[in-house]
Amino acid sequence: MPKANVMFGVLLHAADRLRQGEELTDLEHVLLGTLRETLGEEEVKEWGRVYRESVSARGVVTGVPEGISARLVSQGYGFADLAEDLPAVTAEWTAQSNWSAVAPQALAAGEDFDSPEFIEGMSQWGWGVTVPADLAARAPGVETPEPPREDELTALYNFRLDFDNFHVHRTVGDGWPNTRDEIRWISCGKSDTGSHAVPFLSQEFGGNQTERGQTPEFTYKRLAFQGDARRGLIMNIACWEWDTGDGNDNSIGEVLIRLNNDPIFSALWAAAGSAAPTFLGLMMDLTSMAITFTSLIAKNDLSASRSLYLDQKTLAALSHTGSAQWHFAGDGHHVLKMKFLGDTIPYPVHDLQCVIRTGTTWSAPSTLPFQGLSGPTLAVHDNRLHLFYIRSSDQAVMWASMDTNGNWTAASRIATDRSWHAPAATSAHGRLYYAVTGMDNKVYTRTLTSGTWSGHGIMPGLSQHSPALATLDGQPWLVAYGLDDNLYHARHNGTAWSGWHEDDLDWKLDTHVALATRVNHSRLWRVASGKDQRIYTSINGGGDWVSQGIASPNWRASHAPALATNTATNTMAILLRGADATLWAGEYNGTWHSAHKIPAAAAMEAPAAAYFNNKLYVAYLRQPS
Hints:
Blueprint: H1 6-19, H2 26-39, H3 41-58, H4 66-69, H5 79-93, E1 99-102, H6 104-108, H7 116-125, E2 127-132, H8 133-136, E3 157-170, E4 183-191, E5 200-201, E6 223-229, E7 232-241, H9 249-259, H10 262-273, H11 279-297, E8 301-311, H12 312-321, E9 323-329, E10 333-342, E11 350-358, E12 361-362, E13 366-372, E14 374-381, E15 384-390, E16 396-402, E17 412-418, E18 424-428, E19 431-437, E20 443-449, E21 452-453, E22 457-458, E23 463-472, E24 475-482, E25 487-491, E26 501-502, E27 514-518, E28 523-529, E29 535-540, E30 546-550, E31 562-566, E32 571-577, E33 582-588, E34 592-602, E35 608-612, E36 615-621
Parallel strand pairs: 1-2, 2-8
Antiparallel strand pairs: 3-6, 3-10, 4-5, 4-7, 7-8, 9-10, 11-12, 11-13, 11-36, 14-15, 15-16, 16-17, 18-19, 19-20, 20-21, 20-22, 23-24, 24-25, 25-26, 27-28, 28-29, 29-30, 31-32, 32-33, 33-34, 35-36
C-alpha cells in the first residue's frame, strides 16, 4: 500500500488529539464522528494512545504518511491541509493498477464493465475504484472550475439498483481442508441529491452455492439503492468471507455499513461537485482507509471491495442495458450482477459553443443553436464551414453548415448514422469526405457532393474512438485507432480507399488523433495526447510516419488536441483542453510556440478547429461553469 494513506493517518492522529484534549479540526470532526459511532469514545482514545506510542517508539507507522506521523499533537489536520496534499496523493495512488475509468459508450455497446488489466490490478490489491472516463482525465495540480449551478444540472431522475446474482470464479477458503466459503455482501452509498443507498447486508451464501462455477441468486435481500440523483451515485460494495457464526452477524454488518456511510460520501460528493482533478485520489484514499479500518475491527475476512462513481452517462448506459457485471477479485474472485430498474435515464445534453480568433484577438464564447452528447467536428468545404456532432437522445450524427455571413443551416441527420464519437471530415476532389466510428465499431465513410450525401462505405476491421481525416497532395488520408491498440491509415485516390496500413510508431492512446497538412511543405501532421497527457507529434510525406517528438515539455491535454492549418501563413494552430476544462491555443511555424489560454472558453471534451473566412473557429461542448 502506498505511503500516502492520508485519511487513515489523519484518523489516528485525530484520535490521539482527542485523547489529549486538543480542539479538533473540521476534517478530524468528520472522521472521528464515524469512529466514535463505531467504537465509542474511550476506545477511540485508546487507538490514539497506541498510535502515539508507535510514533514515539519507531517514528513511523505503517500506512501513515510521514508528513502526518511527524506532526505535533498540537498540529491538527483540516480540509485545507488535505487540499494542499491531494495532488501528490493522487499521483501516488493513480500510479497503481487497481482503478479503472469507464466509458459509457462502451457499456452501451455491450462491452464489459471491467477490463482484464483492472481485474488483474484488483487481484493484486484486493480492492479497486472505478470512476467515469471524463473525470479520470483530469490531472492534479491545476485550477478547477466552480461547481455547476443548479440550473445547469440535469433533471432529477429516479432509479433502483438490485443485487441479482454472483458467479464464483475463485473461492476464498480459510486455509483448512474440507471447508466451505460463507459469503456475504455489504454495500452503502449516496447520490448527489442526498438519497442513500439502502444499508445492505446480504443473506449468507454457503455450502455448494459458493463452490467454483456456481451462480447463486439473491432472494429475500436484493435492494441496493432506490432514490433520485442528478449527477450520479457513489457506492461502496464489499464481498466478505463470513466466519463469525456467533449470533452477532447483523450488528457487525451494521458497524461496517456505518463506517462507510455519510461522512465519506459527503466528502466525495463535495470533490466531485467541484470537478476536482484530485477526486480519484481522494476516492482511493478514502476507500483504502475504510478497508484498513474494517479489516482491523472485523472478525471476518475481506475477499474484495470496490468503490464506484456512476455518473449520469454511466447510469444512462445501465438504464438502457438493464444490468451490469462487476468483478470482485481479491482473496477470492466473484462477479456480481446488478439489475437496473426505474426511469430510462437520458444522456446529458450540452450546448455547443464557439470562439473565433481574428488576427490575435479572441471573441467571447457564443452559444450555437445546437446541443449534443459528444463532438463537435469542423471542416471547410465549398466556401462553407461544416459542423458535425452527436445528438444526445439517439446518438444520431448531425450536420449543419454556415456561410461567410455567419448564417447556420438547421441541423439535419446524416442518413441513419449513429455513433458515440464525433465523425471526421475533409475536403478533396470537389467533395466533402466523411468518416465515423459506428455503434458496431466499424468505420463508415461517405461523401457530400452538391449538398447530397452518398451511400456509406465500410472500411475493414474494427476501431475505437473517433477517426481523423485530412487531405495531403489532393488525397484524403484516414487514420483510425484499432481495437488492437494500434494506429492505422488509409488513402483515397479519388475512386476508392486503399487498405489499412499499420502504424510503425507504436503510439498507445486513450483518445483519437488530430490531422492537418502544412500545404507548402507537403507534410501531413498527426498529433495526439498520450496516456501521460503529453502531446506527441509525427509527420508523413506520403510513406511512413516519422516521429517529431513532444510538441512542448510543458503542454498537457486531457483529451485529443485539434489542429487547423492557416494556408495564408502556412502555420498550424493547435488547441488543447487542459485538465481544468480551459482551452489553450498554440501555433507551429517551424517550431511550436507557447500556448495561451483562450479567455472564458471551457470545454467538456476535445475541441474542434478550422480556419474559415480568414478567421480561426474553435467549437466545443460547453463545460458547465
